[in-house]
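User: I'm putting together a teaching handout on how multi-component assemblies are represented. Below are the sequence lines for each component of a complex, exactly as they appear in our records. Could you produce the 3D structure of the whole assembly as structure tokens, so the students can see both representations side by side? Please keep the chain order the same as the input.
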Amino acid sequence: MSPTRRSFLGAGAAMMGGAAAAAVTPATAAGASTPLTATVDVAVVGAGLAGLTAARSLVAAGKSVIILEARNRVGGRTLNHAIGGGHVAEAGGEFIGPTQDRIAALANAVGVNTFDAYDTGNNIYVNGAIRLSYSDSGLVGGLTGTAPPDPLLLPDLVLLSQQLDSDAAKLDPAAPWTYAQASAWDSVTVETWTRQHALNATYVLPVLAAATRALWGCEPRDVSYLYAAAYVASAGNATTTGTFERLLNVRNGAQQSRFVGGSQLVSQRVAAALGAAVKLNAPVRSISQTSSGVTVVADGYVVNARRVVVAIPPALTGRIAYDPILPADRDLITQRVPMGALMKVEAVYPTPFWRANNLTGQFLTTGEPVGYAFDNSPPDASLGVLAGFVGGDADRTYGAMTPAQRREAVLTQYASVFKDDRFLSPSDYFDFNWVDEPWTRGGPTGLFAPGTLTEYGPALRAPVGRIHWAGTETSDYWQGYMDGAVRSGERATHEVLAAL
Amino acid sequence: MSPTRRSFLGAGAAMMGGAAAAAVTPATAAGASTPLTATVDVAVVGAGLAGLTAARSLVAAGKSVIILEARNRVGGRTLNHAIGGGHVAEAGGEFIGPTQDRIAALANAVGVNTFDAYDTGNNIYVNGAIRLSYSDSGLVGGLTGTAPPDPLLLPDLVLLSQQLDSDAAKLDPAAPWTYAQASAWDSVTVETWTRQHALNATYVLPVLAAATRALWGCEPRDVSYLYAAAYVASAGNATTTGTFERLLNVRNGAQQSRFVGGSQLVSQRVAAALGAAVKLNAPVRSISQTSSGVTVVADGYVVNARRVVVAIPPALTGRIAYDPILPADRDLITQRVPMGALMKVEAVYPTPFWRANNLTGQFLTTGEPVGYAFDNSPPDASLGVLAGFVGGDADRTYGAMTPAQRREAVLTQYASVFKDDRFLSPSDYFDFNWVDEPWTRGGPTGLFAPGTLTEYGPALRAPVGRIHWAGTETSDYWQGYMDGAVRSGERATHEVLAAL
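Assistant: Of course. Below is the structure of the complete assembly, with chains in the same order as your input.
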């Protein structure tokens, strides 16, 4: 059969008035039987927050753009899940907090509002036989926020978080590998560092694992200390130094606020404005460069462009075929930034009944499956949602179970932690294991084992000819977060505009 | 245009008399404009030693087979380089030693002979200002072989190698993750373990790095101690326990012998016997499974089979598109076994003139670019070849240089180490940086950072429906070596035959 030559550009590429009209050219690459073809200024791979931000800002600068998205939806690692009554609970990233200025600006620009995450009352902490109920609004052991007042834990929490903050402050968030001690810090795992610095490492490590599971979907053995310190350094902005507390806290921290309508709404609004420039169900298979341009081949599409922004996780960038092949450092980093293993579990109840007991809904525990849980109810509290993170080894254990087994394990744990059997009978329950998501294959972010940042860090962002890299892992500030994704898209836009 | 439907099966699939005639079916998958299509019992992805071994043994069992190889040659990580006079020097894997029974059997079966690696005379050891010339045929500090008699180094070499051997002996080479202390050993890097156990870690680490660079193309920070111990455990066979010395030694070790005609000749002979069943220039793009069979789509080919053996490094298996997508543990391990960074450099001289000075040609040094060098002359010594490994950080540094800069650095180092300016003027010089090789992207083997073996080790070999995994990284014994590749191909064959 003959490939049908259809133009999707007229109704597709997003252009401002000033942009040159895009030329329609015949399809040349193999792949789909009837590929649609177009010529634009910039092709963008991936319609998560990074790719959508890049596309939006490039269009605002008068460039013609096509976004190729593998999924049948936009939003990447954000995903709204309908829970009835017009409400949603997020299955992916959802929070926004202080210094996350760029996601805030984007949400504001597209008219998505925020509201405070519910944080009134006491948190629960369970560590073996120890169960504490405590307020996170005071100051405990020099720490504000979610630090549980476990006397066996607090000295190390103070010691380790101060050391971490002090070390993080020495790093350039955009290039932690340039620090003089980078190689030394990159030669130990977070577990090793903890054993070296904690007063009572045996006690603190399981609690730390509950944090790394929620934060990175991994165990403390999986990532390097340089990466941990760089991640803390990244939890700020150009005028505010990153701190460990800001990463972990609700009040004044990264979990402070949520989006009305769900976090995915930001992407949906941006995509709606871009219109038919966003092509869904279009996984990119190959990127070819010449001295005159770049050709991006996706299922059903062939896009010729002057530049391409690849806005997907580093590990997935390695699954595209490049011609010419990538330089060694860039290829080798695609082999070295694996996604974490993270699942989100959410039980929906007719009301957030725990609030009446002066409970925030938050708990931190060394138990399983959930290590950290929180109140994820809609802003009007017309439903009650208790969400939890199941990460690292727990993701591997519980991800392998049947949905029914997993549901029972989660609800039983909720009832046990809160000593309240009402948690056993939700009106709805869902979970979402990001390792099973075809176009993410893990979550929440790409991880850096010992050696990787030192050896290949510069390749994270360095353009390869006409290819520019975005995605939250490439951000200076708030890497691993929605804010980092937006920042990376803005940075890629600056690169592209300077080159066009 | 219409896809031309050609059959390549008649002249292609390798079959014994007893095999069912393969059915020719029309091409169905997109990809090439004129895909050739065939139906066979087993498709094999990759014509390295693992894939060729699987294909050979499956054909011997009466099965019809097609091998799809991305390159224009067979042999994978073995590669003969012509140096004139009909001689070759290997740019990739080349040695064979005791307990490597399966590569020995395969080479014997295809009539490729071995000869002793040159090992007469003294080795050189250079560590900063210390330069020692020593015989490796004696017993030094309880160690035979290549241990340099550096009094600052030897106590640690004895201590660490005994600890490593003792630990390795506790592991099942086929499943090191089952050991009770596996998680603990997998939570530290080799650098951390060395700092914890060495008397003089600051002194021993640079020497250890010279070894890890040659052995794995990495730094001691990059891999876990569990992986190191498992690698040692793997350096034996079912009746002989693996030891660290056997990994490192020439005499009685993994570098004892070489192949007449070069190591790639083994693959070439196997491929020749398989004939047109071996399809070159056919990178596999997708593998689709149904309840009735599997379809493998490569550039130019569509192969329908009952089973497929994927015999490429774990990282590269992640670059194939699977339908249905891989289970989470299998996908996540493809993100977590990066290739090392290894280059081989070889200077060719009219004669192996160093032999007359009672030198083996071997040196071990903390200097750069080369960490370990050896005499790689042809068996008749009609030319002299001095080969060296440039790995890890040195690969990154010297791989980024121009070829002329790199050549000068290598030759200058050779002349300096041997105190002999004749090394400055070779008749020929070549180097081969495996990180630049499109269908390998690193070498010599896939590496395991902390956590990986513990968390995802079982997924290395576990079949996924009709997909079976081979490649040296999946072997119980001699993983990372040619012998492991052959063993993995044999194991995959057993799996497939049991399933067919």
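A couple of points students might notice: Residues 137-249 of chain A form a domain with the Guanine Nucleotide Dissociation Inhibitor; domain 1 fold (CATH 1.10.405.10). Chain A is about 30% helix and 20% strand.
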